[in-house]
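Entries read chain and fold; for instance:
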Amino acid sequence: MLTVSTVNVNGLRAAAKKGFVEWLAGTDADVVACQEVRAEADQLPPGVREPDGWHTAHAACSIKGRNGVSLYSRQEPEAVRIGFGEAEFADSGRYLEMQLPGVVVASLYLPSGDVGTPRQEEKERFMSAFLPYLAELREKAAAESREVLVVGDWNIAHAEADLKNWRTNRKNSGFLPEERAWLGRVFDEVGYVDVQRRLDPEGPGPYTWWSYRGKAFDNDSGWRIDLQVATPGLADRAVKATVERAATYDARWSDHAPLTVSYE
């Protein structure tokens, strides 16, 4: 059994003070992926940077206080890679992978974008470069008899069932037709599988992110943008997916909730 959790922590130092440390201590996950860490490794408290019982890897952004991804594994990785070979994003703190026995697990923080701004252009460049890497990664892993699991904040809701207010978001980043089509290519052309949606094909949701504004959390007016995307062999082994939604607004330590999947 392999259990993997992924969560955008919305600033790991802040999350650590609000409940992340306790959550990590209590999780049954074998691998935990974090996004939007927003800290250099040496800025993290020792119990967060290298907690007992975990092997860790952190990829910070060259711009302080931005982005950042981390991986925690109970098993020592055979190799660690930061970035996916695209120079523009080499030090962006958006991609980190570990080679573990039989599987490559990656933590991804895809740019969020903002229509009509350079942020959206950056997102488009990232997607353009990342798609061929996903194909290359799958091919290389298969040659080594490994599966691939890319988890994290993909910042795209693929279908109407993946966000509450889809009608009013059709022209907003995260639900643009071209973004949804790109994610469709990840599944249909490159051959990866949206594991949670495979297990729960109907929806709506379950959502993994809720804005801090208004009553979004209380009304479950969210987006399903945190995904576990796997090669078919591993996806076929998935038996349970759970969004660890906080019981109350006040109990949240991030505006995202962990998505946890167990694989046989």
Summary: The chain has a mean pLDDT of 97. The longest strand covers residues 2-8. Residues 77 and 100 are 5 Å apart (CA to CA).
